[in-house]
Amino acid sequence: MPSLLGLLPGPGRRTLDVACGEGRLGRRLRSLGHRVVGIDASPTMVRFAADHEGSAPALVADAAGLPFPDGTFDLAVAYMCLHDIDDMPKAVAEIARVLDRSGRLCAAIPHPVSTAGSFADRDADAAFVISGSYLDAAPLRLVADRGGIHLTFHSEHRPFEFYARAIEDSGLYIEAIREVRVPDQAAVRDPAARRWQRIPLFLHLRAIKP
Q: Which domain holds residue 35?
């Protein structure tokens, strides 16, 4: 998150937290002075967001059909969600619609290189292998245990061009791109994590509505 926060403009009129989840990012943005409204398609996540002290207002809504008039926001943040949205181009178009002139979208996704393949093993110098195609979209399924809770994530690998074209078609202009790797301190704690210092783990970008 710190790398993405570095791309954000200062607090303005109103900030949209797209797919806000339990509101962690919204609370951070509020602490920085942003006037935040969150949306999420999951009623459970919106309820979790509302239960936190100091949480931003949040409502149940589809990112591909935002319930706001044109030009409502001067900043939209889509943190680790565009890859999970089935109709990603429509969601980007909706974000562009609700942005005011000179408004910005700041987004973070898993880097498409990292979702196109995997390391052969956990060694720091392990080979990274793309067994299928980087250029073709493909479903992704990730199973994880978080605090004793078994979670299954359904997502999609898309090459970066898919996101760039969605931004282009929405009328936004990309201003900045960052390819984020595992930080040095994480590699010190887990030497095997050094393999992720050779492959970008996340992609962060900022786009503006002219």
A: 2-113+159-208
